[in-house]
Amino acid sequence: MSARPAEELVEQWESEQARLRQQVVEEDTEDWQRSPHFSGLQRVGGVDLSFIKGDDVNACAQLVVLSYPDLEVLYEDSQMVTLTAPYIAGFLAFRETPFLLEALQRLERNQPKLVPQVVFVDGNGLFHYREFGLACHLGVLSGLPCVGVAKNLLQVQGVYKNEEHQSQIDALQKGGDSFPLTAASGKVLGKALRSSDKSTKPVYVSVGHKISVDTALRLTHSCCRYRVPEPIRQQSPGRCSCTGAV
Predict the structure, then answer these.
(1) Measured in whole angstroms, how far is the alpha carbon of residue 203 from the centre of its chain?
(2) Domain range holding 81?
(3) How far is it, in rounded angstroms, from Cα 192 to Cα 48?
(4) Do strands 73-82 and 178-182 pair parallel, antiparallel, or not at all (unpaired)?
(5) How many domains does the chain contain in total?
(6) Closest Cα partner for 121 from 138, 99, 143, 104?
(7) What is the per-residue pLDDT across 38-70, written as a single tens digit (0 to 9) for each?
(8) 4 lies in a domain?
(9) Which cofactors are required for activity (predicted)?
(10) Mind listing the pLDDT tens digit for each residue in 191-230?
(11) Cα–Cα distance measured from residue 244 to residue 242, given in angstroms and rounded to the nearest whole number
(12) Closest alpha carbon to 115 in 75, 152, 153, 163
């Protein structure tokens, strides 16, 4: 791709992100979100794209739906897809969202009673260069509450992987402990969560759509048996039934 078309694409995507960003709802919108024990929540989903080693074009788009609070698998969908959009840092959603959205729409057509009430996204939401990561993008386009859960720290908006950050991690004593990811502007873009007593390495939780950061944090912790919440953990590459089908 030549420099000029790439610049034009970035401009186009920045404009689209800014337009969609205005539609993000950063508050609780559902009754179950306001319940101390999430009464009324029955189905939690998780989405991810798994790449085959050495291949950044062909991937397996996965969607799982689990029961809540038991976290038993109710539905699984994995489809081999070919990504056509280029990878540009900060615009991952333009590569991945169409296929994840397709999986949700397929479920809605075929088994509407299993559509999740909230979707966990393996990636970031508001914790992003322009406060509009993959979880926000999918949330706005699907209309579903979404939570971004990243395994690694994205160094953006004045949040860095430095000694201060490590000392905050070290101060997390038990599962459920957290600290805010505060931008240089002072806005809290997400929270680092120690998701279980056994795991000292945190996950990074941020709002995607139609949920508050505190509810997203509480829900993520309630879905963790190990470090990564079950709706995302259940999508390890080894579980992808279409891996190697290219």
Answers:
(1) 11
(2) 15-25+41-239
(3) 20
(4) unpaired
(5) 1
(6) 138
(7) 999 999 999 999 888 889 899 999 999 999 999
(8) no
(9) Mg(2+)
(10) 999 999 999 999 999 999 999 999 999 999 999 999 999 9
(11) 6
(12) 75
